[in-house]
Amino acid sequence: MIIYELINPHDPYTFEAPDAQVAALLCLLLGGGAYGADPDTDKEEDRWGLHIFSKGDDVEAEFQERWKMSIDTSMRTRKVELAAALRSFMIAGRAERAGIKAAMEACPTQEARDAFVATYEDKKRSSLTELAGRARDLADKVDALGDDDPATLVES
Questions:
Q1: With contact defined as beta carbons under 8 Å apart, do 104 and 26 qualify?
Q2: What is the secondary structure of 56-108 as a DSSP string?
Q3: Phi, psi at residue 6, to the nearest 5°?
Q4: 75-88 burial, b for 16+ CB within 10 Å, e for fewer?
Q5: Following DSSP, what letter does each residue of 6-42 receive, concatenated?
Q6: Positive or negative: CA dihedral 117, 122, 123, 127
Q7: What's the CA gap between 131 and 10, in Å, rounded?
Q8: Contact yes or no for 136/30 (Cβ under 8 A)
Q9: Out of 36, 72, 85, 127, which could bridge 7 as a Cys pair, Cβ 3.0 to 4.6 Å?
Q10: C-alpha dist (Å) from residue 74 to 56, 94, 122, 147
Q11: What is the band of 154 on the pLDDT scale with cuts at 50, 70, 90?
């Protein structure tokens, strides 16, 4: 897995994704093109498509040129990996991510883990924008999708 840092005007966030395509889907789903991502690798194939889009950019055309499929098709075919990437999303920079993950894994129950995460995020977040909670909500929506078009989630 590759650790990506979200490029955004809010707090530092990181997430794990298997490749740039899933990372780009996460950024598009979470920010509608307003967020980018910086991978912890210098491999060009892991970096493409992770920039912030400007108004007027043809995101669909650029995505299709790179991955030879539409955003909708990509979201459907990479649904499991996208939901996992959204669930890995946390308010933490690269340097602190491993420690936070270890603390979460040390929690004896899911309830204790959820309480730890809620307390940590409330203390850490300096913005009213609560992206980690939104990412978890979107992961549940992605999991629940049947044959519907996942791109409608961008509007949610």
A1: no
A2: T--HHHHHHHHHSS-HHHHHHHTHHHHHHHHHH-BS--HHHHHHHHHHHHH-S
A3: -70, 130
A4: bbebeebbbbbbbb
A5: EE-SSS--EEEESSHHHHHHHHHHHHTTS-EEEES--
A6: positive
A7: 9
A8: no
A9: 36
A10: 22, 27, 33, 13
A11: low
Alpha-carbon gap, residue 5 to 1, rounded angstroms: 13
- What does the block give as tokens for 90? 């946390």
Residue 152 CA, distance from chain mean position: 16
What pLDDT was estimated at residue 156?
Answer: 40
Write down the pTM of the prediction.
0.83
Tens of pLDDT along 125-137? 887 778 888 999 9
Residue identified by tokens 């999303």 is 89
Distance CA 54, CA 86 (A): 23
- Other C-beta atoms closer than 10 Å to the C-beta of 58 total 10
Residue 64 tokens read as: 């299709």
What is the token pair recorded at 75? 């979201």
First to last CA, the chain: 27
Question: In this structure, are residues 20 and 51 in contact, taking their beta carbons and an 8 Å threshold?
Answer: no
